[in-house]
Amino acid sequence: MYFVRTASERDVGQVRTLLDETFHATYDPFYGADKVRQMVDGWHSANAIKARIGKRGAEFLVADSGREIGGLGYAAMYPKMAKTVMLHQLYVRPSSQNEGIGRDIFAELETCFPDAEIMRVEVALPNVRAMSFYERLGFTEVDRMEEWGAPNSGLPAIIMEKRLEF
Questions:
Q1: What is the per-residue pLDDT for 137?
Q2: Residue 151 pLDDT more than 70?
């Protein structure tokens, strides 16, 4: 049983472990272990995680069982578009998937931004499982991009949006 709560700096080690595990399980088949290792090392350093946890206008949530963190979600207001929140990360430990953890984290994130009208997410193009998950949550494809995750990544993605209604 997991409960969703706001992340703190004491969670950084477990968050890094979860991101390493989920990134390799998700993206190794598409990009290879070496490319995924570069992504994890570049995007998920302890300092990067701490910065996300402390960022104003953002929310970093974890699903905590009391023994382990089974999932995480990170979203922040999107400065390029008014009243839009960007869902940057939503990952569930592979051994804990299909238990509703991702849905629970997402449900909590939806309530964290009362001024937002739209939630946006970028999904790596080969990750059809994630696309299906977001479609079940009410997201639809609105655009495509050539550089997912970082400039010059060479990783194409789709952009999905969901209208937030309170």
A1: 95
A2: no
Please, how many CA atoms are within 13 Å of residue 36, restricted to the half-sphere of its CB? Answer: 16
Mind listing the domains of the chain with CATH numbers?
3-163 (3.40.630.30)
Distance CA(92)–CA(100), nearest Å, equals 10
Whole-structure pTM value: 0.91
State the Cα–Cα distance between residues 135 and 112, nearest whole angstrom.
Answer: 21
* Those residues with Cβ within 8 angstroms of residue 61's Cβ, 6 or more apart along the chain or in another chain: 4, 5, 6, 7, 72, 73, 74, 105, 108, 109
For residue 90, name the pLDDT band (cuts at 50, 70, 90).
Answer: very high
What are the residue ranges of helices labelled H in the chain?
A: 12-31, 33-43, 46-54, 101-111, 128-136
Give the count of beta carbons closer than 10 Å to the beta carbon of residue 44.
20
